[in-house]
Specification:
The protein has 173 residues and is an alpha+beta fold. It has one domain: Oxidoreductase, molybdopterin-binding domain (Sulfite Oxidase, Chain A, domain 2, Alpha-Beta Complex), CATH 3.90.420.10. Helix content is 25%, strand content 32%. The strands form two sheets. A five-stranded mixed β-sheet has the order 2-1-10-5-6. Strands 3, 4, 7, 8 and 9 form a five-stranded antiparallel β-sheet that branches. Strand 5 and strand 6 form a beta hairpin.
């Protein structure tokens, strides 16, 4: 961003090439700040039918926290984030199916009926720390497996997608 400010404050008239470079810098910066995009059958956002969340936007939603074990980690983990229910309410999602997609384009289907109180969350912290892409982050849909045998099935394990970066809401017909 410092380069952008320096270029904009220069007294010379920007060339076409400089304009293209500036546009690329601004676009790249905006994309880098977005950690989650929600599209599909949702209420209208500032960007039309696309909600884009930076980490600070997710943190502005009600915080949930739970301790649970997972089949991918050792021992009990403390997850913090926004409940799936709160996020779907915030974006005005229709009842139906969520197509949750990871950074590597892996996609899982999650029924919106999973978004219940004391249900799954979109975690942005594990044990008080941000999760890197290499460490299943920056976002991970986690179910509260501990003490809830109904969630300890292959069906729910398959819905616990990490490296989450986008959700498409598909309404029931």
């Amino acid at each position: 961003m410092q380069r952008l400010k320096k270029l904009l404050s220069a007294s010379t008239t920007p060339s076409f090439l400089t304009g293209i470079i500036l546009l690329a810098l601004v676009t790249t910066q905006a994309m880098a700040d977005t950690v989650l995009t929600v599209t599909g059958d949702v209420s209208e956002a500032a960007e039309g039918q696309r909600w884009q969340f930076e980490e600070s936007d997710l943190r502005a939603l009600p915080l949930v926290q739970f301790e649970t074990d997972t089949i991918w980690t050792e021992g009990t983990q403390v997850f913090e984030g926004v409940s799936l229910s709160a996020l779907l309410t915030h974006v005005g999602a229709s009842d139906g199916t969520l197509l949750a997609t990871a950074a590597n384009d892996y996609t899982v289907s999650i029924p919106t009926s999973d978004a219940v109180e004391n249900g799954p969350m979109i975690a942005y912290l594990r044990n008080g720390e941000k999760m890197s892409l290499r460490d299943k982050g920056p976002l991970w849909i986690v179910y509260p497996f501990a003490g809830n045998d109904a969630y300890k099935t292959e069906e729910y394990y398959s819905r616990s997608i990490w490296q989450l970066d986008r959700i498409e809401v598909v309404a029931n017909e």
